[in-house]
Amino acid sequence: MSSSPTEPTSTTASSTNSPSEPSDRSSSGPSRVALIACGAIAQPAADAVARRGWAIDVHPLPPLLHNRPEKIAGEVADLAATLLPKYSQVVVGYADCGTYGALDRVCDDLGLDRLPGLHCYDVYAGAREIQSLMEEQPGTYLLTDFLVRSFARTVERELGLDRFPELLPDYFRHYTRVVWLAQEPDEELSALAQAAADRLGLPLEIRPTGTSGLESALGALIGRSR
Q1: What is the C-alpha to C-alpha distance for residues 4 and 190, in angstroms, rounded to an integer?
Q2: If we measure between CA atoms, which residue out of 21, 22, 15 comes closest to residue 54?
Q3: pLDDT tens, 113-128?
Q4: Which residues, other chains included, contact 73 with Cβ-Cβ below 8 Å and sequence gap of 6+?
Q5: For the whole model, what pTM was predicted?
Q6: What distance in Å separates the CA atoms of residue 60 and residue 37, rounded to the nearest whole number?
Q7: What is the pLDDT of residues 48-86, one digit of tens each?
């Protein structure tokens, strides 16, 4: 997957479904916002934008950047540089996500706000819930709906387990359970989550979260940027 910036995935509910990028600030309107989103949350973010009718264009970065968190800050900075002249505001749909403060330095330099928390799990379930899960069992492996759907690609293939299955114990020997933070659970996703846990040889627990945490965090993010 390319790490080059992509076109926005959605606009407001009144717009057409064909993604288009404003060519200058005047065409985007004085109150239009660009959301630079982690690819792993871009679709639920776009769904929230459509539900709320927010004047936001969602610009996703590749979700596989989560496997290379040292690249996230640079990719956000590059995309923000192209979007800032075209929008009244640019906000960042990432938590820290393993950048160890590098993303915050980019946001400070460019005057951007980002989602709260250490990672997207905090956004979905709340930081206290995630902390509680980890204190209860430090060997907890977390999945979101996106990771459940893409497990074969984002986990197995990226870690090389499709080619070298003997590496699985090296990666996962210290994990004790899989917890699926289920935003929109259904039978298909439930089966995929169970298959992922079985692949890792771990028990599966399901913690329904919905998407209200993400929607609330996005709303607060927009409010801080006004």
Answers
A1: 32
A2: 15
A3: 999 999 999 999 999 9
A4: 99, 102, 103, 105, 106
A5: 0.82
A6: 5
A7: 999 999 999 999 999 999 889 999 999 999 999 999 999
